[in-house]
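Title: Prediction job returns without error message
Component: structure pipeline
Severity: low
Priority: P3
Assignee: unassigned

Description:
Job completed but the reporter wants confirmation the result is attached to the right record. Sequence as submitted:
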Amino acid sequence: MKYLITFILFLFLFTACDDNSQCLPNCVDKVCGDDGCGGACGTCTINEECSDAGTCEQVCNINRTKWYNKININLETVKVSGIVKINGKQMPDNTLETEDQTRGYVKFQAKNSENYFAVKIGAKGEATYSKEIYKGRYRVSFVGYDKKLQDAVPPYEVVLHKSIVIDKEMKFNFDLETVMLKGRLTLNGKSVPDNTRQVYDEKYMERGDIIITKDDTQTEVRYPIGNSGDVTYSAYLFKGNYTAAFMPRNYEDQNVFKQYRITLSDNLNINRDQVKDFDIKSVTLKGEITINGKTMPDNTFKDHENHSRGSIVFIAKGSDRYLTATLGSSGPAKYEITLYNNIYDVFLMSDYYQNAIIDSDAKLADDFEPGRDKTLNFNLDTVTLSGEVTLNGETMPDNRKNGCKDNGRGSLQLRNKALYHSVYSEIGTKGNAKYELTAYKGEYELFFLPQSSKCQDILPEYGTRLDSNINFINSHIRNFNLETATVKGEVTLDEKEFPEYYQKERGVIKITGKGLFNSYTIPLGTNGPVYYEFSLFKGNYEVLFDPNPILYRNMVFSTPGIIEKNFKLNSDTEHNFDVETSLIKGEVRLNGKMMPDNTIKEFSYMQRGNVIITSKEMSQININNSIGRAGPATYEILVPKGIYNIDFSANDKAQQNSVPDGGIMNYIGCKDETETLSGEETCGAVK
C-alpha cells in the first residue's frame, strides 16, 4: 500500500508541474537558436546572426563611415559546375516547341543581396551546367521554367542549399525527386456547374484556377479548370510541402463562384504520387450586431435617414477580396450571408452619411472558420475618453487668425493600433480646449494634430504623440498639457557655410518625430548662410538632410542622410545642425589584378558594371557609380556620414566580357552597438 501511495504522490507532483518541465532544453554546443522546447539558447549581438549550428556569426565588415574612406573591392571568382538529375535518372528532354526551350536553371542567390547567377541547363540531353561566379555565401536552388514553355521538370523553384560558402572551385550534382498530384474539385459535394455567362464575342471564360504553392520558395502555379464539365487536375511537383487554393475568375467573366481566394489545404506534404480531392463547401451565417449589448441605433443623419449604417465584412485569409452584408438603416442590425468554408477576418465597416455607429471600423473576429451553417451574433462595446488640453500649463489661447474655412486650433486623433483607423475630436477655436473621443474597446495610440499654420498662430504646425499605448477598456477623463520650446541656430556643410549653387534650391532639413508621418522642414535656400528659428513640442526628434538631386554634379550628394538620430528638445535652446559628408572611393579588382577592359566590339562603349552603395539607416536609398569600360575600375562617391552596404553589380554578359554577369555584396555595414535590438534582429530570427 505504501508503494501505491508513494507512486500516486510522485504522479501528482510530476503532473502538477508546468507542462514545459516535461521538455528538456538542449543547448549543448549552442549559444543561440532553438532549444527544442520553444525557447532560445541565447541571443546574438546586433551585428551577428545565428547559424544552423547554433553559433553567432558576424554578418558585417564595415563600420560607420568617416570623412575619408578608401575601400578597395577585390572580386574573386570560382567555377561551379555539375549535373541535375530527375529521380536518379537523366533529366527528360523538353518536348514543347517554344522560343526558349530551356528546361530551367540553377540559381545561385547571394546572401544578403538581391544579386544572383542563373545557369541554364538547356532543352535536351544531360542537364549539365558550368558557371564562373564570385566567392561568397549563397542560397542554391533549381528553377523549372513555366509549364507553357517546357514539360521536362516541375515549374517550381526547389531549394538545394539554404546557405553554403563557395570559396573554391566546386561541383554540385543534384538529384531532384518529383511526384504527381492529381484529383477532383467539387462544389458542395457535386460537380462544379458550367459557366453560363457569355463575354467577348459570346465566348465562355474559364471558371477559375487551382493554385498550388510551394511553401518554402512561395512559387505558385495555376491550373485552369475550364469553363464547363467535371473538374480534374494534375500537377507535376517536386517533393515537399505545398498549399492549395482556388481562385475564381472575375465575376464579370463567370457566374459559378463568388470572387475571392479559397484555401483548399494549407498542409500538403507531398512525398509520393497521390490523389487528393478538394471540395469547396458553402455555409450560411446569420445573426445580429449590437452596440453595448443593445439594438444598434437607427440612422438619423439629416436627409440621409435611409442610408445604411454599415456592413459586416468577411475578408478571406490570403486574399484582398471580401464579401459584405449590409446592416440597413434602422431596426435590429441583422445580416445573412453565404460564403465558402474558409478562414476569415471579420469586420464592421461604417458607412458615410450615418450617425448610428462610430465613424470607424472594428474587428469582430480573427481567423474565423465557419465550419457549418450557424447563427453568429457580435456585440461591440464603446468607451469614451474626454478631458482638456492645455498649453505650457495654462488654458490654451484663442486662435486669432481668420480667413480659413476651419479656424480650429487642432484635434486629437485616437488611432487603433491593429487597424490604423482613427476617430477625431476638434478642440475648437477659442475657450478651454475640451475634447471627447468615443471608440470601440481596444488598443490605441493618441496624437495631437495642430491646424495648419495658415489657419492658426498659437501652436507649432507639427504634431506630437500624447500616448503610444492606451488600453481602451473603460471610459475615463484624462487631461494633457502640451509643452513647447523654441530652437534656433545655423545649418552648415562640413562645419562651413553652405555653398551657393547657381540659384538652385540646395534642399531642406527635415525634423521628424517618432511615430508621426509628417515633418517640419527648414528650406536651405539658394545662397548665403542658413539660419533658422521655430517652435516645436518638446520631445525627441530625428533630423534628416534631403538635398536637391540636381546638385549632385556640383559635389553635393543627392542622397538623403541622417544628421542626428535623437535630437532632444526639452527647453528653449540654440542648436546648430552640421551636415557631415563622407567620401568613399577605391578600385574594383578581379582576382587581385586590374579589371580587364570590355572588348566586345559592338558594345565597347558599355560600362563593365557598377558599385552600389546602400544606406542601412534609410530604406530604399542607394547610389550607383559606374566603373567605366576600360582601364582601372575606380569609383568615387560622396554620401552623408552613415552606415552603408557596398556591393558590385556587373552589366549583362552580352554587353561586356570583363567580369561574370551578376553581383555580390562585398561589404555589409555594422550597426551601432548602442542601437536597441528589435524582435527581427534577435538571434534565431535573422535569416
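Comment from assignee: result matches the submitted record. The helical segments are 2-16.
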